[in-house]
Amino acid sequence: MPFDLILRGGRVVDPSQKLDAVTDVAFAGGKVAAVGSGLKADPGTDVRDVSRYIVTPGLIDLHTHVYWGGTSLGIDAEEFCRASGVTTSVDTGSAGPGNFAGFRKHVIEPSQVRILAYLHVSHAGIFGFSHRIMVGESEELRLMNPIEAAKVADENRDLIVGIKVRVGLHSSGTSGVVPLDIALEVANEVGMPLMAHIDHPPPSYEEVLARLRPGDILTHAFRPFPNTPATAQGTVKKAVLDARERGVLFDIGHGKGSFAFKTARAMLANGFYPDTISSDIHQLCIDGPAFDQVTTMSKFLCMGMELSDVVAASTVNAAMALRRPELGSLKPGSAGDATLISVKEGQFDYEDVVGEHLIGDRKIVSEGVVIGGRWWHPN
């Protein structure tokens, strides 16, 4: 099959293949067709000189809110992904069983960028999240809709990758772990992983972790006090280590209130890296402090993680968490997605959710995107 597109001469960083080398990447029929030096172009092949850039598998942002117009926190997925180098945007619970059909028809299906979703166990998802209104959807147990959630998840397995629930004082009031237990029932019924949000207690970090199964995801994992994974002495809590040992995954989910440099420094100093790095982008943090996926990745690069580990946490690790092995890789036969980035050097001001600033010496910048084997941005 003739190549549709060749990215020529970039530094290819693909942790799924333990690859870091200057080489070419070719695409055909919407998939990765070949990786190697001097790949031969056909007369109709779009050849792009990317020798100034780093080529990675298409970035996956495992925690976004992109039900634009359907919820007050939703942002435009295509606009965000173009700017942030994201090829797969995973919406985490914006919609529940009562409004997922609208999300699918009006946002996901028309989108040029891939959108996958965790379905909220609450009937209308995260419906009361704005600058003026803050209503925790898990606070009112009458909104929990496990029967319909199981039905909708089962009927939309092409797009729904798991079940979402938010617990904590701001999202579930004094309901404690009850919404989490209801969501776990649904996840067990449909055989899908669960993503759990956590904010202020109740419940405690330990109570949430104790219920999570192998393959389940705790998002906002590096959040500030209270409900932080680190002790006052800067060590990692035993419950956190035990959860990782049994296969629970830890996701960043930066957002408006869920990432602190202090926590991240303690976790990284103990060798506890996040499984996945995600932005939790929504209307209340897109203008800061999260901004986008590459900014969130940049913070970890500036805190000492190697570029390959940062890329892995936004590609192959996220694909494995989603149980979508065709994503997050440039192996031939994988989905034809790639992201072009550069790493700028200088002085860059980064901010966490509690107002601490970090002056970093590097910044990851999105330089272009390939989706479905075609050059998508910039034109």
TrEMBL record:
Q: Which residues carry this modification: N6-carboxylysine?
A: K164
Chain coiled-coil ranges: none
> Is 4Fe-4S tagged as a keyword?
no
GO MF term (any one): metal ion binding
Q: Where does Zn(2+) 1 bind?
A: H63, H65, K164, D280
Looking at the keywords, is Lipid biosynthesis present? Answer: no
Entry's Gene3D superfamilies?
Answer: Metal-dependent hydrolases (3.20.20.140), Urease, subunit C, domain 1 (2.30.40.10)
- Site (Transition state stabilizer) location in chain: R166
- The entry marks the following residues as binding Zn(2+) 2, namely K164, H197, H220
Name of the protein in its database record: Dihydroorotase
Q: Which organism is it from?
A: Bradyrhizobium betae
